[in-house]
């Protein structure tokens, strides 16, 4: 495993292939869009625990952004990202350009269709989003050839979609989930949090409060809805309780609460395990 300070940076598929061939033993990949924060650090730390070598990918994927979304303003901080990876002892960072990833352009591109589960929740609000996600993740898996891939539970539907793709397409990769990392005030860490004004952040804190209320209630959906409705500065897209595999919510037992809302123009998501018909499974933080 690489010592801190000697992370190799690859921008091309050819250089990545050469660097990947030299990595020893079990290899884990942490796919990211950059703007790395402590949540990504947690993923890297977990990757180092389960693998002999760690690859971090940094790529802002245009396929998963719609024309009216924040592709152009999405933070790009490669120097800082590389510094974090070096400090954490990451072996290899792959940071390709859009042309490197999609040399023939995006029109007519062969893609990975997400199926029906990719058309609910985030997929309903952002049509085509999961096709973009699964296509780039599939490409990154083929290029990095990992034994394991690590994803945060904050993007719970994405995690479920990737697991389904890996299973359905027989990719033979161990998809490892890592618990949501939260800031001291309870807000789930996200690269988009930097866009929040002070007032918008105060409104956004209704989301972790809703998570806490849901986890303490036998009716988690009603508890979350009540908390969110009390915050006028939040524009709620959806708040739902689903089965742990994103199927219909059980009448009783373990389930998953999922929330999406906007504070100002910044769209935030969160989720947490809940228990329908029983109380208290822990603090959202």
From TrEMBL:
Alphabetical list of Pfam families matching this protein: Pantoate_ligase
Catalysed transformations (reactions): (R)-pantoate + beta-alanine + ATP = (R)-pantothenate + AMP + diphosphate + H(+)
The keyword Transit peptide appears for this protein: no
EC number from the UniProt entry: 6.3.2.1
Annotated catalytic residues: 40
Coiled-coil residue windows: none
Binding site for beta-alanine: 64
InterPro entries attached to this UniProt entry: Cyt_trans-like, Pantoate_ligase, Pantoate_ligase_C, Rossmann-like_a/b/a_fold
Subunit annotation: Homodimer.
Protein name stated in the entry: Pantothenate synthetase
Organism: Glycomyces tritici
Gene field: panC
